[in-house]
Request: fold
Amino acid sequence: MIEAAHPPDRLPGELIMWVLIISEMAVFGAALLIFLTLRLRDPEGFAAAQDHLHRLSAGLNTVVLVTSGFGAACAVRAARAGQAAATRRWLWGAMILGAVFLLLKGVEYADAARQGIGLETHVFYTFYWLLTLFHAAHVVAGVIILGLVSIRAGADGVEAGAQFWHMVDLVWVLLFPVIYLLR
Amino acid sequence: MKYHTQRIAYAYFVVAMALFAVQVTMGLTMGWIYVQPNFLSDILPFNVVRMLHSNSLIVWLLLGFFGSAYYLVPEEAEREIHSPTLAYLQLAILVLGTAGVVVTYVFDLFHGNWLLGKEGREFLEQPKWVKAGIVVAALIFLYNVTMTVLKGRKTAISNVLLLGLWGLALLFLFAFYNPSNLVLDKQYWWYVIHLWVEGVWELIMASILAFLMLKLTGVDREVVEKWLYVIVATALFSGILGTGHHYYWIGLPAYWQWVGSIFSSFEIVPFFAMMSFAFVMVWKGRRDHPNKAALLWSLGCSVLAFFGAGVWGFLHTLHGVNYYTHGTQITAAHGHLAFYGAYVCLVLAMITYAMPIMKNRDPYNQVLNMASFWLMSGGMLFMTFTLTFAGTLQTHLQRVNGEAFMDVQDQLALFYWMRFGSGLAVVAGALLFIWSVLAVRREVVTPGPVQQHRDQMAHRTPAE
Reply:
């Protein structure tokens, strides 16, 4: 996929999808900023709470989701070339990886619930649950959207679906280091 | 007027304006009770006046929305309203219900009766038969308007308007659900008015504003629709979870403090978009529409909604701030400017636009109407500032220093006197508006040389 050297004269993809992406980035960004601000008041408490999370599983999930994003990007290229069968294969690949992400996340949640970690346990977990659950809901929505656009496998639809899917990717890449890794 | 059935709007607007007069009169009465607390205390207690002030506002705005829909849907769908008879029947039901509510409240009739007596849940205290009547009227309306749109041309404006109106009617159904658990009672209670004003009513506002901009500025429909979609997307994105800012202190889990704070902070975005939209359309517009007053109300609507709903809303939406300001005069300041800017000005803009066409009046009689805009809006802004200062003082004295409620109220007397003065201006402005729309038959002020020249030019090359 060779793009022209000069910037495109119109916004690529769906306008409404861009509005949604900017809105999501703003909301997650605001929440992460609040999270970091609250952390300043209680770094030890936050670090202790963080130790109950599964960094390895979350790291693996990052690889899974980014790879899935690659699949969605390949689907866009195939859709633009008019290859419906290849488009569907890439989309299904991306969806399966999305499901793997949800599975790993579900194991993490189950373990947290087993340890008795709830929304009110510590302010760290309030944000952990709110942000990751909100993100996981977007993963579910994204898998459904990718499934819907795979039916017709048209270039515009697949592009809009991939736009959404990359946003889900991007949000996770921001959440992961701030929540799981920051010491 | 291209379609005969657009005239249905006339009846709706007249009843709406009558209730508008009642609403502001009740407001002024309350303003007086604030400074002379025993006024009418035996025959018309404060809580009843307050309820009449708020509920008549909602009812006349609803009538304004219905009227606006009956006016703009035929033009958008390019066909007559499905059934004018049903439209008038709907109005009759609403008028009967409103009269029933007022009589039931003021004389406290049928006390305790499950069907006829008032229900006691603040602002949703309508007797059950009135609630049922509202649902029937809403169903008639939705059937009538949806049939018209389905059979005619489908545009973004009518689609967004329908989405908003359907949401409005469906959310009202929560008025029937009253769990005995007080926390759940309050949770559902907020669904009715506040998922309206922070959600579906914004869709209605955006679509009516889009219609007015289309007519008044002559900008391409394609451009208007793009803006409309962006406004709708940001309104729903921020507004639905943003309504969580009402859940801070009613007993719901504490995470609502974060959800409500973050999402409601973004509720300013659709209002900023609507303001930008209105001004960009006017700048881009090629049409010099003769109805300058309608343009003034439309632009005023978008600006005052941005400040009243957007800025004054953000002022006390973060839970750390709201912990101190909750239920003080800060809330009253926000409520007044938000409702006035977003929804009162909107309906008055539509009335100003549609009435001269329905009454077949040209040239427009505009000067009094525009004067009423400045009088009413000036009064409302002054009231907002007064209440904001009163609320700031109240927050400090009562919530920070811990003084007793009534001791603090005594110290706020000066602000309440000024608020009464600003209320006088608003009532005078409202009456002037109604009079200028309904009664005046000739231009009251002779146009100056510049305007005369423009009028001549306009007549030589008629607006497309």
Notes: Chain B has a mean pLDDT of 94.
